[in-house]
Amino acid sequence: MTRITLRRPDDWHLHLRDGAMLAAVLPHSARHFARALVMPNLVPPVRTGADAAAYRARILAALPPDVDFTPLMTLYLTEETNPRDVVCAHRAGLIAAVKLYPAGATTNSTSGVRDFDRIRPVLEAMAEAGVPLCVHGEVTDPEVDIFDREAVFLTRVLDPIRRATPGLRVVLEHVTTAEGLDYVRSGGPQIGGTITAHHLVINRNAILAGGIRPHYYCLPVAKRESHRQALVAAATAAPPCFFLGTDSAPHPDADKEAACGCAGCYTAPVALPVLAEVFDRAGALDRLERFASLNGAAFYGLAPNAATVTLERGPPLPRPGRLPAGEAGVTVFDPGFPLHWQVLR
Ligand code: NCD
Ligand code: ZN
What we know:
Number of helices: 12
Low-confidence stretches: none
Oligomer: single chain
Shape: globular
CATH superfamily: Metal-dependent hydrolases
Bound molecules: N-carbamoyl-L-aspartate, zinc ion
Strand content: 15-25%
Distance between the termini: 19 Å
CATH class: Alpha Beta
Order of helices and strands: EEHEHEHEHEHEHEHHHEHHHEEEE
Structural class: alpha/beta
CATH topology: TIM Barrel
Largest sheet: 8 strands, parallel
């Protein structure tokens, strides 16, 4: 197969940032994706319905003309989040989900949740109103090894929350482990999981072997090869519970190439070509549409996009380079192998 046409994909986990960075990265997501669930971890975070409305307006103002792209907003859950504000914002169509960051788990998560008992009322209101909770599933306990933080989160935090809040719809974001996949697969229709493009192609060696490579460092950190293989099997089987969330997370290169570098891979411009390569190699191109364009929309109760996108396989594309943004630019994720699939305009 050298051409494949699918419904326009959606990105169910995207960092667009704000200001000049927003202006630099937004066109690259909007070119390939019809909709994206926009993460709220700005500084300060997007905490209220009013914050989400203002951020949404800034995104729409930064959109290039003639591009069909809908940002779906999220709220950043804190211990002070007002349940009524969440339910009203969702009912008004202003937000699609609420995001839970355990405090300190990742970039800009200091306002996140420390005491999970304090968010019980808002979770109950969300369960009743059908507002999905998107979860950064890692414990922050410094005693827990960083490669185990996702698996430990499932038993220590997520499962108790779900048992205490029946009916709560949950998305386990950027799943990186076989344990996370199993948890989602066995959790029934109330739970979904997003999988990034980069976790399908790198394992932890990409970050650490033969020199330290900060552009492959993100959170949750890539795990060992057996987990990557489990992720590829899950994504390419594409049951309804798994869908694409790129977690494309741009940082200025100066902040990544540093003694204490930021977590986040900037994948948006190459996410679809990388996915096509992965699905092609797995003999699963016919299931790419389910993973990238159908399953997520169904989970969020939205119709799939009517428009289509066509990918074509040709000679290897130039290696991804650096996006001009700010002083240092932003390095685009390089999967480490040539990409052959490109999105036709
Ligand atoms: C994200 C970011 O930079 O905002 N970083 C990352 O490594 N994925 C935050 C997040 O989603 O964890
Ligand atoms: Zn993220």
